[in-house]
Every structure is written in structure tokens, then in C-alpha cells.
Amino acid sequence: MSFSVASRLVAPRACWILLLSILVLTQPAGSVLGSTLIKLDLDELVTRSELVVEGQAEDVYVQWDNAQKMIFTYVSVRVDEALKGTAPRSLLIRQLGGQVGAMQMRVPGTATFLEGDRVIVFLERRPDQTFQVVGMSQGKYQILDDFVVSNLTGMNLVDPKTGESARPLFVESATLAGFKRRIQELVQ
Description:
By secondary structure, this protein is of the alpha+beta class.
């Protein structure tokens, strides 16, 4: 029985593909498909934030950095109310990831924004005077009618007190007035 060079290469390659498939499928979902973050409750979000604002995403655009090595998404937010800190009338959020042409860079767990989104965001200032969302998606609440909604599905959150990891399977919501009141209580 004779084997060609091609058949000798296919067998080891097939074994590697099978082995890699087994490794990927047996990993916890968060380590392959999402981000693992320390769970931040509202008190922690407020404490870690320089600014907490209610506003509207007016412009969302994506571009390369100056070195053409990283892709960033920029979100221009019109500030309607500062709940913590002194905020300008508009501010710019900069986040790693996005798509420029055919090139896409994804960062699981990053807050996503669409033009027109009404939001409450927990922010910290970056050295370049843009802002980043505290706790990734944990620091963005979308306003829908008279409610705020936080969607953390697909993320692994680790409770800092117990060390236990959990993947939220739900969307958290609260009334807008109650949520803002709670933030203002925590700021004082």
C-alpha cells in the first residue's frame, strides 16, 4: 500500500483541526466568545467614573490610528445632563475596535452605540481628552422611553467578593427617574 505526499499531510492536518476544535469547544464560553470582567455594581460605576452623563449619540465613526495599526470607534455624545462631574456640551468617546473597509477589529464586551441612541454613560477621561466607558458595556445604559436598559449578555462577570463567574442571561432595566435618583444619591 502506498501513500502520496498529499495524503501524508492531510492526516496530520485533520488531527490538528480536530484537536483545535475540541479545545475550542471545551473552553468556557467567555474565554472564547467574550470578555471576562470584574462585575461592577452601580456604586462602583459611580465611584470609578469622572463623569456620568445623560445624552444622545450624535455621530459614530470609525478610523485607523495615526500608525495604521489599530482601529478605533468614536462616538460624539451631546450631553443633556451631567449626573456626576462637570461635563462639556458634547464629548467624544473613543473605544478600541470597529470596521474600516474590509478590515474589522472586534473587542468583546465593548459598549456599542448607534447614532440617535439616548444613553446614560459612566466615563473616565483619557490623556488625549477623549473619554472611555468605565467597565466596558457595564458603563452604558440605553434609555428607552422612561426606562434605562443595560445589556450584558455574552459577557463573563466575576463577582469580586466571591470570585464566582457568571454569564448574565438577561437584560437589566430600571425606571429612568429612579436610576438617575440613585446615581445622584451615590454622588453625594
